[in-house]
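Dear H.,

Thanks for agreeing to be a second pair of eyes. The structure we're designing against is below in token form, covering all 224 positions.
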């Protein structure tokens, strides 16, 4: 979840999204820039998993995204976990048999937690609002969970995910449902499809923070 604000369009008031009383989420949804984001997530890293996966939030987005990767693409290829945070997605993928997972995140504190899981082949700092240093067609799967949300990464990240994904590869990303349209994410996915760069496999609404009744779009794209 730890990335930086970017090219989001006008969107609903972030504090209208149910935070279930979490002061951390209230800060996360109103980030003002990369330094603010890095500071927040470095502070939050030690308790992030316990708070979000606990009873108040029921954060199931990472688990459901990993399951979607398994169903849509399998886990034999090379996978990039973009905005890996503490490694919740990587652990779920590793449990499903993935062995070649790379992760990037803005926060050194989150990356340290991800490294401790042992799920990742490589980890590196990165800002998803900017192009990544990886070459084109570097991965069979790009998965991104929790970064396409209020105050974080805008819809332009989808174009970078396409660049990083090999032809025939798969992108799986969650987008907080209440900014899917208003934040320009639907329009960007549709634009990429109209340009024949991707095939839209699905954009279904799924549980995200289940206990707080917050949903997200599970975007599944096949790269041309």
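And this is the sequence the design step returned. I haven't edited it by hand at all.
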């Amino acid at each position: 979840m730890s990335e930086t604000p970017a090219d989001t369009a006008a969107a609903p008031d972030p504090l209208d999204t149910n935070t279930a009383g979490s002061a951390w989420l209230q800060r996360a949804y109103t980030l003002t820039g990369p330094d603010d984001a890095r500071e927040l997530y470095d502070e939050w890293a030690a308790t992030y998993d316990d708070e979000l996966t606990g009873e108040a939030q029921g954060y199931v987005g990472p688990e459901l995204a990993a399951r979607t990767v398994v169903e849509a693409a399998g886990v034999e290829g090379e996978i990039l976990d973009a905005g890996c945070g503490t490694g919740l997605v990587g652990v779920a993928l590793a449990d499903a048999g993935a062995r070649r997972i790379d992760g990037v995140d803005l926060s050194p504190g989150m990356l340290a937690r991800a490294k401790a899981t042992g799920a990742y082949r490589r980890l590196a700092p990165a800002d998803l609002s900017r192009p990544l240093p990886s070459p084109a067609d570097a991965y069979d799967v790009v998965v991104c969970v929790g970064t396409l949300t209020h105050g974080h990464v805008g819809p332009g990240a989808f174009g970078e995910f396409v660049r990083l994904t090999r032809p025939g590869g798969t992108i799986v990303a969650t987008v907080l449902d209440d900014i899917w349209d208003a934040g320009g994410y639907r329009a960007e996915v549709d634009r990429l499809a109209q340009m024949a760069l991707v095939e839209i496999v699905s954009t279904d609404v799924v549980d995200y923070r289940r206990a707080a009744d917050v949903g997200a779009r599970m975007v599944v794209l096949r790269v041309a």
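Two observations from my side: Residues 1-10 have pLDDT under 50 and may be disordered. The CA atoms of residues 91 and 117 lie 7 Å apart.

Warmly,
E.
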